[in-house]
Amino acid sequence: MASYCRTVTRLRLALGTGVRRFHVSAAFNARAKVAMSHFEPGSSINYEKLHENVSIVRKRLNRPLTLSEKIVYGHLDDPAGQEIDRGRTYLRLRPDRVAMQDATAQMAMLQFISSGLPKVAVPSTIHCDHLIEAQIGGAQDLQRAKEINQEVYNFLATAAAKYGVGFWKPGSGIIHQIILENYAYPGVMLIGTDSHTPNGGGLGGICIGVGGADAVDVMAGIPWELKCPKVIGVRLTGTLSGWTSSKDVILKVAGILTVKGGTGAIVEYHGPGVDSISCTGMATICNMGAEIGATTSVFPYNHRMRTYLEKTGRGDIASVADAFKEDLVPDEGCEYDQTIEINLSELKPHINGPFTPDLAHPVSEIGAVAKKSGWPLEVKVGLIGSCTNSSYEDMGRAASLAKQALDKGLKCKSQFTVTPGSEQIRATIERDGYAKILTDVGGTVLANACGPCIGQWDRRDVKKGEKNTIVTSFNRNFTARNDANPATHAFVTSPEIVTALALAGTLNFNPETDYLTAPNGEKFKLNPPTGDELPSRDFDPGQDTYQHPPAEGSSVNVDVNPSSTRLQLLEPFDKWDGKDLVDMRILIKVKGKCTTDHISAAGPWLKFRGHLDNISNNLLIGAVNVENNAVNKVKNQLTGEFGGVPDVARFYKANGVNWVVVGDENYGEGSSREHAALEPRHLGGRAIIVKSFARIHETNLKKQGLLPLTFADPSDYDKILPDDKISISGLKSFAPGKPLTAVITHCDGSQETMSLNHTFNETQIEWFKAGSALNRMKELQ
Question: What fold is seen in the domain 581-780?
Answer without folding.
Answer: Aconitase; domain 4 (3.20.19)
